[in-house]
Amino acid sequence: MSTTQNLTLVQAVRDGLKCELERDDDVVVFGEDVGENGGVFRATQGLHEEFGEERVFDTPLAESGIVGTAVGMAAYGMVPVPEIQFSGFMYPGFDQIVSHAARMRTRSRGRFTVPMTLRAPYGGGIRAPEHHSESKEAFYTHEAGLKVAVPSTPHDTKGLLAAAIRDPDPVVFLEPKLIYRAFREEVPEEPYTVELGDAAVRREGTDVSVFTWGAMTRPTLEAAENLAGEVDAEVVDLRTLSPMDWDAIVDSFRKTGRAVVVHEAPKTGGLGAEIAATIQEEALLYQEAPVKRVTGFDTPFPLYALEDYYMPEAARIEDGIRETVTF
Amino acid sequence: MSTTQNLTLVQAVRDGLKCELERDDDVVVFGEDVGENGGVFRATQGLHEEFGEERVFDTPLAESGIVGTAVGMAAYGMVPVPEIQFSGFMYPGFDQIVSHAARMRTRSRGRFTVPMTLRAPYGGGIRAPEHHSESKEAFYTHEAGLKVAVPSTPHDTKGLLAAAIRDPDPVVFLEPKLIYRAFREEVPEEPYTVELGDAAVRREGTDVSVFTWGAMTRPTLEAAENLAGEVDAEVVDLRTLSPMDWDAIVDSFRKTGRAVVVHEAPKTGGLGAEIAATIQEEALLYQEAPVKRVTGFDTPFPLYALEDYYMPEAARIEDGIRETVTF
Amino acid sequence: MSVLERDPDERVQVLDEEGRVVDGATVPDLSDEQLVDMYRNMKLARHFDQRAVSLQRQGRMGTYPPLSGQEGAQVGSAMALAERDWIVPSYREHAAMYVRGLDFDQTLRYWMGDERGNSLDGLNIMPVAVPIASQIPHAAGLGMAIDYRDDDAVAVCYFGDGATSEGDFHEGLNFGGVFDTPTVFFCNNNGWAISVPREEQTATETLAQKATAYGFEGIQVDGMDPLAVYQVTREAVKKAREPPVEELRPTLIEAVQYRFGAHTTADDPSVYRDEEEVERWKQKDPIPRLEAFLRDRGVLDDERVAEITDSVEAEVADTIEAAESIERPSAESIFEHVYAEMPRRLESQMQYLQRLREQHDGELLEE
Amino acid sequence: MSVLERDPDERVQVLDEEGRVVDGATVPDLSDEQLVDMYRNMKLARHFDQRAVSLQRQGRMGTYPPLSGQEGAQVGSAMALAERDWIVPSYREHAAMYVRGLDFDQTLRYWMGDERGNSLDGLNIMPVAVPIASQIPHAAGLGMAIDYRDDDAVAVCYFGDGATSEGDFHEGLNFGGVFDTPTVFFCNNNGWAISVPREEQTATETLAQKATAYGFEGIQVDGMDPLAVYQVTREAVKKAREPPVEELRPTLIEAVQYRFGAHTTADDPSVYRDEEEVERWKQKDPIPRLEAFLRDRGVLDDERVAEITDSVEAEVADTIEAAESIERPSAESIFEHVYAEMPRRLESQMQYLQRLREQHDGELLEE
Ligand SMILES: Cc1ncc(C[n+]2csc(CCOP(=O)(O)OP(=O)(O)O)c2C)c(N)n1
Ligand SMILES: Cc1ncc(C[n+]2csc(CCOP(=O)(O)OP(=O)(O)O)c2C)c(N)n1
Ligand SMILES: [Mg+2]
Ligand SMILES: [Mg+2]
């Protein structure tokens, strides 16, 4: 058996980066404050010292420049792993993401590709200033050519990150910062991958399927546990949001006939909509209740005094599950 | 009766701008090539001459600058009506749209507002180069604080545009360029508004509700006509995509029990998903078939040799309707 | 000759590190009262800042961006404006906002996570802008609007050294040049953008020279010399109002300074910079410099300084008291001010939240 | 002394409008054969351009961006590169791409709406970039990668005068300066961005002076003088490979030129500019200028010119024939190359389209 380390999620990010930097000389890590400072969340701590200025470096404060130069490096055969300091600051680089990273392969019929992994801490719950609590994964899942992953455990983090970095296509890798340091898990020291596109059933159940990802996985599991006895809920952590594991979703739903989707992002146009739409498309005849969405509201993410009202929490999720099974 | 003019859709844009420029001195129109050149689609033709350089002017080639200065002008009390030359070029200004235009009111608790109308030609079908055929309305409808409108007729164009310009909130006004000159309609010379948030039933029917907007309205109506006798389809032109007219959608669906959504945008995460999700949420017990989505594919919009395969056309929509009524 | 007409590499200074007037410099024409005000504003800002950091440490406030070291640039520039002028701040301009009329309790309220601290009613201040450089095009747009209305105001836009690398810096300044707007682009070059030093932001020698790319003047000033900052800003504002023939209204001011503390309370500067560097810059502290100058001028003495210190402490204590005694914002306020009129879907989401809270005896979702 | 070491306001020129070598200029060290090649490349590009415009008029091609007038800048710069160097084009660099190995039938294919024209197999050319200025950070990134690999290549990035207003211009050049990349930023200043004249893009006198904002050199060159362009580019490339001590590798070249025709075939320039202006610039046409120089040098005569004209016409005719005889891309190719491996949902969308076409007897969706 290989040795393991007891790591938090953010330490697993760091460990994943380290393993990939060791494995492949073409991998480079860069962004604002990722060098000597080791990242504002310490996700790149020590990597600058260990791999040197050429492999792990700071950039000017310019997100379009960060993503745009990554596209150029990728065209030359490198494997860029840029960081955007918070997902709310990806927008100045949005054009480079959707117009170039996502399309270079199509545009050049496979001649040029962008095997970039664009990391960003995402989601709310840490009493942060404005724009620091966004979850707008739906922007990226609506853009063909991109993949999107969101881990929910330290083990998955390292494995999904490795898979993303080795993936020949651009992956937007959103890290749920609320749980960066929330708990620890045994993580192999060896490099390994967790395949992109594979959901994980975190709790088996027969009454209702609850689909979620990232930081919402924990309150969702908590809600499921609180309801145990009353309701037997299956909890599926989607892990990769594009491409989505539709088989896992539809299979679970065919079994239970009821579903709840939990996400932090605003309800309208969030991924809950796509999941509900697909379920009724593929399995209407199994459907015994509306697919329920327990989500953030259709408002800007409020400043932190009110963020606890905004984000789904176990009690709210429980209510959603209960309503769905009693429909 | 007031006098009317026989206008194309793009002429109605121009007429709408003209009326609002006349009505309110605070309205200014600007963007790339909207001045002397009158816009690359002639949507602002003659306005520079008529209203002068102060009211209608060219800007440097810089979308973030265009939207960002509009936000500043709005804060000072003006009513900016910037144009982005094609909706595919809104991304360099995306941060200003989502981080500022959408949020200024919330952020300042109503002290500062952005009554901007951001116009952009949108959609495919005109054999245009890469990035000129996008329909990514779902990006804007997922962002709270923005409104989104897409007209489908010259009459609505003038009225919706006036409503957008007079609206105290930022409106992303997407103009279906495929039908800019496709047909003419009688349009009152007088200013008037078509209320934001109101869908229009374009064809009454009892068997199935077909929801669509913009350039897809015509092939959808064509499909409905082709099926007349066989299927009695109701066609609803949503016109405003945010806020959506949920009452109209759910009412129509309660009547027919079956629905099809037609849009050009990619399927996954497109507005069809939100409509399907809402229908099953609000009216599952009426639902006799899956809500069908007839949409663009989950690929980048192809270069024009293949665009006809990408865009829904009447025959494809007919198939979708038929499948839905025979489910 | 205007101080603006200098070689951009030559840094404007009025006071040296000991607070003595440097050779050839003219002391700006400010009354003793105004000078004492300037001093008091800086003292107040410094004390406020220290208290704010400790509120954060005590868990009474969220992340906070301190300004110690940067009082000279903020107070000096803001005092150079007329009542009708506007400022467009980033997130660190607490002192400039105070000078322009915003009480510090509002600033605290904002950093305590309450948007109402940012509503700025009746003040010519734009709200705090968090995305770096994104406020710069707003300032150009304000200038365009001021011009359109034929008003006589000037908009002063604050941003950091790191901000000069963003596309919005470029687009904002370029619009300023093209539309010849009454705007002062005021760069608080505090040497660092979190951990990235100024030298790694750009390969130029100065930031002021970037004005060359927009066709208007750029000038470097000692940002820890409040008199020099006042003077340069006043001339830039004057030029914006009444530009000489053949000259454009905007100016890029690079105020060279240093932040003594962390980037924000979430940052640990010891990871990336030496204590020795900090000590070196503390020699340029704007507060003792102006104090020495005013003592020398006979406007301040021990007694007056003690009085000011006391009044500053009392004001900050009141401010904190005020900020902490305000009632929490209501849950409903999440839904307010998203649109002028609340759309039906939002209303039903608000009702859902109200129902939820009732069902759970108001317990749900309370910390 | 390098030609780069000039006042940025002084425009480099080798040939005057009559094709005579200007006082003090050195003719670059090119063989007669190379010079004739340069001439032929420009003639070919001009003829191709005229035929492409007429293909569009006849409905045989979609929107097309013509280059007539800009051959000197494109051919002169591209010929200054070594085999291993890269170019990063916008959408108008057909001639530069040709010189770097891309046949014109590929260019036609692309503008006929077929992505395969953009696949550029085996060539050191990045694909056509449509969003203005967005390719500039790519060129900086290429340079960073070249550096990382310790390769000896240089990346030349083309963009227009309008592009200099975009944030990506700023961020790309700033990264170039900070990371000291082997990049030449080549601005085709053709006087207009669609209908907006250069004077309304920015308030500066030159575009070259914008290099001051990034810490490296900027230089203006007569973009309709292929020899001057060749020379300036060659020196910029040389500097990028072997920078003198204390100098940065990148250069911003502003090649001042004019587009004789419309912005694209969808544009009508008579709305915004005078025929008289066009005529004035036609005096500087790079083709007769180089022809006069080469006749004078005894390298060209009527016979040789006629031969070249014939061969150019034949080549373009073959090119068009080739482009039009290629089979249409398949409907399935919409789904290919979106990802390295086709996700299942995409596969089922492809199958749906195939089923649809079968059901409708292949009639559906065919023009
Ligand atoms: C667009 C954007 N990217 C990144 C950040 C995260 N961030 C906050 S402050 C900061 C450094 C800013 O440096 P500078 O402009 O010098 O201003 P200073 O804080 O030193 O006053 C960064 C990177 C942000 N707020 N916005
Ligand atoms: C980001 C973006 N905005 C707008 C456009 C539309 N557009 C295409 S070409 C052009 C003008 C470009 O001018 P310039 O940079 O001078 O290049 P030129 O075409 O003259 O070579 C514009 C506005 C675009 N392609 N991309
Ligand atoms: Mg700084
Ligand atoms: Mg141009």
Would you write up a description of this structure?
The complex is a heterotetramer, with two copies of chain A (327 residues) and two copies of chain C (367 residues). Chain A has 327 residues and is α/β, with parallel strands linked by helices. Chain A folds into two domains: 4-188, Thiamin diphosphate (ThDP)-binding fold, Pyr/PP domains (Rossmann fold, 3-Layer(aba) Sandwich); 200-325, 3-Layer(aba) Sandwich (Rossmann fold). Chain A is built from twelve helices and 14 strands. Chain A has a five-stranded mixed sheet with strand order 9-11-10-13-14, with helices on both faces. Chain A has a four-stranded mixed sheet with strand order 5-7-6-12. In chain A, helix 3 packs parallel to helix 4 (94-101). Chain C is of the alpha/beta class and 367 residues long. Chain C has two domains: 3-329, Rossmann fold; 330-367, no CATH class. In chain C, helix 6 links the parallel strand 2 and strand 3. The longest helix of chain C is centred in the first third of the chain and has 26 residues, at 32-57. Chain C is globular. The N and C termini of chain C lie far apart (61 Å). The interface between A and D is large, with 46 and 41 residues. The structure holds thiamine diphosphate (TPP) (2 copies) and magnesium ion (2 copies). One thiamine diphosphate sits between chains C (92, 130-132, 160-163, 188, 190, 192-194, 263) and A (32, 61, 63, 85, 89, 92).
